Amino acid sequence: MRVRHCRWASLVLLWGAASVSAATPTRDELLAADYQQGRTAFQQRCSACHTLAEGGAHLVGPNLWGINGRRPGTAPGFAASDALKNTIFQWDTEKIYSFISDPAGLIPGNRMMIPEPVPAPDRAALIAFMLLETGGADWPRPATAGLADRIDTTRPLAERYPSFYRHLMTNTTRYRMETPGGELRFDVYFNTNGSASSSEPAIRGFWNTVERRGMEFFCYALDGIPATPSQLVECFPIAAMAIPRFAEELWTSKPVAGVTLHGGIMAGRPEPAAEPAARP
Ligand code: HEC
């Protein structure tokens, strides 16, 4: 007990030091910030690991809906590090500012790895965008939000997101589904014709893309799963999958109450079943 208390005390000192050096944006600065600049910064620097919308999936990092005022490491269904969970402040503009300036400085031992701090000129815009998109701003979204760079959906997905497309269409999407009735593992292969097939012959599905709030989502439906539920429908922001990664478990979601679905991407996929040989 005493040891833990001492460690907390020293962490509190560190937080104090971090927040002194941080030039936290004021509310006026957040209000005046450029929405588009914030969105671009978020998409480039954060969206590979975080979704913002309510009910969004956990990726490598937790869904950030409701982050303002929340205790660190408390996103339901996300296995946060002890470093994050033992942190005793509430997220606000100041804490987010110092976190994106120096994650390890604010919370030593946390698991979030970013290649570099968010550059100072982008910080206020990024925070304003995040607060707006996670229900944490007390000011309205700018009227132009979502208009500035409408996605040119006339071009095929394969051209707009080549690395994402190749990644998903040539590799194996691996699932582990935990249900009250037990655990089921199966592989899914998304095909360029919009279908999805599986290592479990009964599972069939399809995929398409959907634009929502200025972001494009990859959505798929699977049917015939030999478990309850036997159907799954999920959507992911494509930007979150733009950096091709391989791992057995890349994301976790709760498609229905009581069911946890872990998904990952494994390199390669089996050849489709051979056509029956032609008679000589
Ligand atoms: C490479 C993946 C990755 C990137 C990129 C990333 N994060 Fe994270 N983030 C994480 C992980 C993992 C955690 C959980 C850390 C832990 O459990 O120690 C996290 C945690 C957080 C938290 C705390 C969440 C909570 O529930 O307490 C915030 C806030 C956050 N990230 C914001 C951002 C912002 C803003 C950016 C972009 C500048 C960003 N992250 C970029 C992986 C990432």
Give the arrangement of secondary structure elements.
Blueprint: H1 2-21, H2 27-32, H3 35-45, H4 82-85, H5 93-101, H6 103-106, H7 120-133, H8 157-160, H9 162-170, E1 172-179, E2 182-190, E3 195-198, E4 204-212, E5 215-223, E6 232-237, E7 247-253, E8 260-266
Antiparallel strand pairs: 1-2, 1-8, 2-3, 3-4, 4-5, 5-6, 7-8
The site of heme C has 27 residues, from helix 4 and helix 5.
Shape: globular
Distance between the termini: 80 Å
Give the overall pLDDT as a whole number.
82
For the sheet with most strands, the description reads: 8 strands, antiparallel
Helix amount, in percent? Answer: 25-40%
Mind telling me the C-alpha Rg? 21 Å
Describe the protein's architecture and organization:
- The structure is a single chain.
- Helix content is about 30%, strand content about 20%.
- It is built from nine helices and eight strands.
- The protein has helices at about 1-20, 25-30, 35-45, 80-85, 95-100, 105, 120-135, 155-160, 160-170; strands at about 170-180, 180-190, 195-200, 205-210, 215-225, 230-235, 245-255, 260-265.
- An eight-stranded antiparallel β-sheet has the order 6-5-4-3-2-1-8-7.
- The structure holds heme C.
